[in-house]
C-alpha cells in the first residue's frame, strides 16, 4: 500500500494533469438505529462541503440517506462528469470490510437504516460497495482525477454477527491502486477510526478540513496534501489512528495549480533545473534510489522506550540510498582492490547462531558466516568500522561522497511515507512477502531483492541483515542524535531493520538496536547513501 510521503519523488517526473471542472459528492450518515448513531458525520458533511466550495468545487451534499438514495446519487454524480474533470467522493459514517457478491474483498459504506436491520446479511443489503463508487467514476471520468476520501472505519456491534458467517471485519481494507485515482483512508487497514463526541467533527475529518483551509497545503501535490494531513493528525493522536493514501503517480493539487499556462518562448531560453533521476547506477554497477526531501513522524509510542517520543523530523535535502544492501560481491571488490582486512579477520571472529545460543567463532567473517552464501547475498560479519572503511574507499574511487545513513534518514526511507508498524502497514501476516526474518529465513541470509520493495523501491529494509547507521545510539529516547552524522568510533551506533535471525517486531520501521562499533555478527550488514551523485 502506498503510504504518506511516497509520491513526492514521483512529482518530479509525472506530467501535469489539466482539469476542466471540479465536482464533489459529500455524504454524511449518522442516523443509525439502536445505539449505533454517530454524532460527527452530518457535521463532517456540512463542513467539508463548505471547505470544498471555497477551493472551487461544485458540491452535492447528502446526509442521513439510505443505500438506495446513495447509489442513485452516485450514478447521477458520475453521469454529470465530463471526461477530464476532477471528481471527489467523501463519505463519513459507518463502514466495514468483507466479501461482496463476487466473493471479492471490498469495503462497504453503511447507509441510514432502522431497527429492522438486525443481521449481517441485512446490514450488507443496506450498504454501498466502494467498488461501485470506483467503477462509476472510472467509467465516466477515465481521463480525469478521481479522489475518494473514506472516514468510515468504526466498530461493528456484535448483534450484527449473529449469523456467524464471518462476513465482517472492523475497519476497511486496502483496495490497491487504480489509474487516475487517489484513495484516502482515515486509518490503516482493519483499524478503527476515532470519532469524537465532544468535537463537531471526527478526528480525521477535522484535519482534512484544516488542510482544505490551508492555502499552502492546497497548492501542494494531492498526495503531499494528504501526507501532511496525516502527519498533523498523528502529531495529536499518535499511532491510535494513522491515515493512508493509495495512488499511482499523479500531479494535481486542490487549488489552481493544476492549470498549465503556455507562454511564448523567451528570446533566451530559461535555464530550468533538471529533475533528479529516480534511480542512478554508479561506476561499480550499484543501483541507488532517489529519496525526496520531506517530513515524517519518527519513532513509536507503542514500542520500546528508546523509540519514544514520536516526533516530526524534516529531511531538508533529497539523497540517494542503495536499492539493496551491500552485497558479498561488492564487498569482495573492495577487499581485492584495497587489501583491507576486516576486524573479524584480524581479531577473534564474529558472532553467529549455533542453534541454541549466540557464540563468537573465530572462523566466522564476511567470507564464511557459518552457512552458504552467494555473491548476491548481503555482506555480513562487518563491524561499523568496516562499513565506514568501505564508504571511504568507494568515495575515493568514484569521487562522490558515500556514507552510512543517519538514523533519521534510514527510518524516513524505510517508511516510504508509511505511518504503520511496517512499511506495508500493520498486518503482520504480510511480512513474509517483504522480509526474510526469523519465521521464514531458514536461519540464513538470502539474495538481496527477492522480496517486495517498499514504496521508494528499496528492498530488504525489513529483515535479511541489520543495517548500520552513522548515528550514535541513545537508550533513553531521542535527543537529536538521530539526525547527526557521527564519526565517533567510541560510542555505540544504531542499527535498523531486523534480520534473518530476529522476530517480526524487530523488523518494524521504528525498531532500534545498538552495538559498539567493533561488534560483528553474521546478521549485521549495511546500506549506502550518497548526497552528490
UniProtKB/TrEMBL annotation:
Any idea which UniProt keywords this protein has? Answer: Signal
What superkingdom does the record give?
Bacteria
Q: Pfam families from the entry?
A: FGE-sulfatase (PF03781), Peptidase_C14 (PF00656)
Gene3D superfamilies attached to this UniProt entry = 3.40.50.1460, paralog of FGE (formylglycine-generating enzyme)
Keyword Amino-acid biosynthesis on entry: no
Residues in domain Caspase family p20? Answer: 20-154
Record-given protein name: SUMF1/EgtB/PvdO family nonheme iron enzyme
The record's listing under InterPro entries reads: Caspase-like_dom_sf, CTDL_fold, Pept_C14_caspase, Pept_C14_p20, Sulfatase_Mod_Factor_Kinase, SUMF_dom, SUMF_sf
GO molecular function list = cysteine-type endopeptidase activity; formylglycine-generating oxidase activity
Q: Does the keyword Secreted apply?
A: no
Provide a GO biological process annotation: proteolysis
The signal peptide, as residue positions, is: 1-19
The record ties this protein, via PROSITE patterns, to: CASPASE_P20
Amino acid at each position: 500500500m502506498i503510504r504518506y510521503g511516497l509520491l513526492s519523488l514521483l512529482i518530479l517526473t509525472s506530467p501535469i494533469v489539466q482539469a476542466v471542472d471540479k465536482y464533489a459528492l459529500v455524504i454524511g450518515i449518522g442516523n443509525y438505529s439502536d445505539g449505533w448513531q454517530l454524532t460527527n458525520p452530518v457535521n463532517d458533511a456540512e463542513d467539508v462541503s463548505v471547505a470544498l466550495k471555497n477551493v472551487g468545487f461544485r458540491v452535492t451534499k447528502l446526509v442521513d440517506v439510505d443505500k438506495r438514495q446513495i447509489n442513485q446519487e452516485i450514478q447521477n454524480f458520475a453521469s454529470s462528469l465530463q471526461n477530464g474533470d476532477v471528481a471527489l467522493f467523501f463519505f463519513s459514517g459507518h463502514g466495514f470490510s468483507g466479501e461482496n457478491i463476487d466473493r471479492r474483498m471490498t469495503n462497504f459504506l453503511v447507509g441510514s437504516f432502522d431497527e429492522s436491520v438486525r443481521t449481517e446479511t441485512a446490514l450488507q443489503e443496506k450498504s454501498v460497495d466502494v467498488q461501485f463508487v470506483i467503477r462509476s467514476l472510472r467509467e465516466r471520468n477515465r481521463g480525469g482525477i478521481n479522489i475518494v476520501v473514506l472516514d468510515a472505519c468504526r466498530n461493528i456491534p456484535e448483534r450484527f454477527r449473529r449469523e456467524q458467517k464471518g462476513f465482517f471485519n472492523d475497519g476497511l481494507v486496502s483496495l490497491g491502486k487504480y489509474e487516475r485515482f487517489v484513495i484516502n483512508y482515515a486509518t490503516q487497514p482493519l483499524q478503527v477510526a476515532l470519532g469524537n463526541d465532544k468535537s463537531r467533527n471526527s478526528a480525521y475529518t477535522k484535519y482534512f478540513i484544516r488542510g482544505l483551509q490551508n492555502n499552502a497545503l492546497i497548492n501542494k501535490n494531492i498526495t503531499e496534501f494528504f501526507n501532511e494531513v496525516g502527519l498533523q493528525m498523528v502529531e495529536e493522536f499518535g499511532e491510535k489512528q494513522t491515515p493512508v493514501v493509495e495512488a499511482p503517480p499523479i500531479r494535481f493539487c486542490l487549488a489552481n495549480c493544476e492549470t498549465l499556462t503556455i507562454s511564448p518562448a523567451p528570446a533566451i531560453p530559461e535555464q530550468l533545473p533538471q529533475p533528479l533521476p529516480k534511480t542512478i547506477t554508479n561506476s561499480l554497477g550499484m543501483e541507488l534510489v532517489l529519496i525526496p526531501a520531506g517530513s515524517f513522524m519518527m519513532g513509536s509510542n507503542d514500542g520500546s522506550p528508546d523509540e519514544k517520543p514520536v516526533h516530526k523530523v524534516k529531511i531538508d535535502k533529497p539523497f540517494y540510498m542503495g536499492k539493496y544492501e551491500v552485497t558479498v560481491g561488492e564487498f569482495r571488490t573492495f577487499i581485492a582492490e584495497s587489501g583491507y582486512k576486516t576486524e573479524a579477520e584480524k581479531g577473534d571472529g564474529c558472532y553467529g547462531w549455533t542453534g541454541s545460543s549466540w557464540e563468537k567463532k573465530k572462523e566466522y567473517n564476511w567470507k564464511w558466516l557459518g552457512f552458504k552464501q552467494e555473491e548476491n547475498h548481503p555482506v555480513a560479519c562487518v563491524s561499523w568500522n568496516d562499513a565506514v572503511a568501505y564508504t571511504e574507499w568507494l568515495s575515493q574511487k568514484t569521487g562522490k561522497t558515500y556514507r552510512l545513513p543517519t538514523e533519521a534518514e534510514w527510518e524516513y526511507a524505510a517508511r516510504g511515507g508509511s505511518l504503520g508498524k511496517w512499511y506495508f502497514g500493520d498486518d503482520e501476516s504480510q511480512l513474509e512477502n517483504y522480509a526474510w526474518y526469523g519465521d521464514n529465513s531458514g536461519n540464513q541470509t538470502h539474495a538481496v531483492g527477492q522480496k517486495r520493495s517498499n514504496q521508494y523501491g528499496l528492498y530488504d529494509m525489513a529483515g535479511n541483515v541489520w543495517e548500520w547507521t552513522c548515528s550514535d545510539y541513545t537508550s533513553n529516547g531521542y535527543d537529536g542524535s538521530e539526525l547527526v552524522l557521527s564519526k565517533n568510533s567510541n560510542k555505540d551506533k544504531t542499527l535498523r531493520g531486523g534480520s534473518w535471525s530476529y522476530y517480526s517486531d524487530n523488523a518494524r520501521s521504528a525498531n532500534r538496536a545498538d552495538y559498539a562499533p567493533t561488534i560483528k555478527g553474521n546478521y549485521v550488514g549495511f546500506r549506502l547513501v550518497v548526497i552528490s551523485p
